[in-house]
Amino acid sequence: MAALFILAVSAVLLLGGAVLAHLIGAASILSFVAADRVRFLAAAPQRIIAHIDLFSIMSMPLFILAGEIMNRAGVTKALIDLAMALMARLKGGLGHVNILTSVFFAGISGSAMADAASVSSTLVPAMRKAGYTAQYAGAITAASSVIGPIIPPSIIMIFYGAMMNTSVAALFVAGIVPGIIMALALFLANGWLAHRHNHPAGEKVPAAEVIRRAGYALPATVIPIIILSGIVFGVMTPTEAAGVAVCCSILAGIIYRQMTVRKLIESLERTAILSGSIFILLSGVAIFGYLAGLEKLPTKLAEVLIGFGFEGWKYLLLLNFVFLVAGMFLEVPVALALLVPLLVPAGISMGADPIHLGIVIVVNMMLGIVTPPFGAALLVVSAVSRTPYWGIARAAMPFLLVQLVVLLILTFVPELSLALPRLAGFIQ
Question: What is the pTM of this model?
Answer without folding.
Answer: 0.79
